[in-house]
Amino acid sequence: MELVASARLRRAQQRSEAMRPYADRMLELMAGTAQAAGAVRLPLLEQRETINTVGIVPITADRGLAGGFNAQVIRRALALRREAEGAGQEVVWFSTGRKAASTLRFRRMNVAQSWTGFSERPDYHDAQAVAHAVAEAYVNGEVDKVVVVYNAFVSALTQKVTVRELLPIPTDLLEKSDEPQEDESPYTPDFIYEPEPEEILARLLPVYVETELYRALLESAASEQGARMTAMRNASKAAGELIDSLTLAMNRARQAEITQEILEVVAGADALGG
Question: Which contiguous run of DSSP H or E holds residue 185?
Answer without folding.
Answer: none
